[in-house]
Amino acid sequence: MMNLPHLTFLRSFEAAARHLSFTSAAEELNCTQSAVSNHVRSLEEFLQRPLFVRHARSLSLTDVGEAYLPSVRHALQEIDVATQSVIQRSHNRKVVVSCPVSLAENWLPDVIRGFNAMHPDIDLTVHGTLWSDVGANVSDISITIDHIDDVVSDAERMWPEKLSVVCAPDFRLKGAPLADPTQLQDAPLIHILGRPAYWERVAQHFGLSDLNQKDGLRTNASNLAMEMAANSLGCVALPRSLTKSHVDRGLLIEPFTFDLDSPWAYFIRLKEKPMSTPVRLFQEWLLQAAAEMDN
Predict the structure, then answer these.
(1) Tens of pLDDT along 62-102?
(2) For residue range 40-66, what is the model confidence (pLDDT) as tens digits?
(3) I want to staple 193 with a disulfide (CB 3.0 to 4.6 A). Which of 72, 220, 268, 295 is the partner?
(4) If 0-12 CB within 10 Å is exposed, 13-18 middle and 19+ buried, where does residue 57 land?
(5) Matching CATH topology for 7-91 and 94-158+264-293?
(6) What string of DSSP letters covers 90-151?
């Protein structure tokens, strides 16, 4: 490639030609008037042609300068557009998701694994949340767990959530395996803080008037509750979307099956619309995975 003038020389020439002033060009480019003057002089030496006529208090373009300016201006615009395109494309290949830790650890990894296989060029960041979502404008996609009576209009339910009761495979109650819901009245229960409705719904569903909901282990983390249950410390009632991975791995079992809607469910929200292509692709992937949970 032939030698080309320094880009700084071309920017100084274009700005000086637009303002017809080295001083005004210097203010725009955030440098000194002498620097702009030297850049232009260096460009003229490179071209071996004068570009400006220097008057006492002003500038005017020579015929060469007039002819050269449109091409330089177009080239600089093309460089700016190309640079912004690269920056914007790099920025837009990122998706930030906020998701409750329980779901992020038990359901989301398989979803991400499949998405990464299809879109390896899109970077995902997952913010695990516990009691509340991350601050505004942090995530592109926000997944929250909300009571079904308190959901705002811009949230879309991911699937109809069902409750399950789980315990360790070797859990015994008075020497016998847990096999009948009535045995829960004598079983140690593990409670999720802020979610008493789980056991309340189970008790109501099976007509367990003597279910002890006051005593037992308590935790604010669903994953910790499942680990407690896996270590035979008691039984826990949780959404089936959370217990499924532990059941699939043989860490927990559902000693009896039942069909009971959960009063708490997972909802998805978008930070803004219109969304970028990577955000749209990941949202579609999430919703497809959610639809499969409903099958």
Answers:
(1) 999 999 999 999 999 988 887 776 665 555 578 999 999 98
(2) 999 999 999 999 999 988 899 999 999
(3) 220
(4) exposed
(5) no
(6) HHTTEEEEEEEHHHHHHTHHHHHHHHHHH-TTSEEEEEEESSSPPPTTS-SEEEEEEETTS-
CATH of 163-248 given 3.30.930.10, 1.10.3720.10, 3.40.190.10, 1.10.760.10 = 3.40.190.10
pLDDT band, very low/low/confident/very high, at 200 (cuts 50, 70, 90): very high
Torsion of CA 269, 273, 276, 278, to 10 degrees: 20
Q: Which two tokens stand for residue 4?
A: 């080309």
Fold classified for 7-91 = Arc Repressor Mutant, subunit A (1.10.10)
Please tell me the pTM assigned to this model.
0.64
- 110 against 83, higher pLDDT: 110
Report whether 95 contacts 280 (CB < 8 A): no
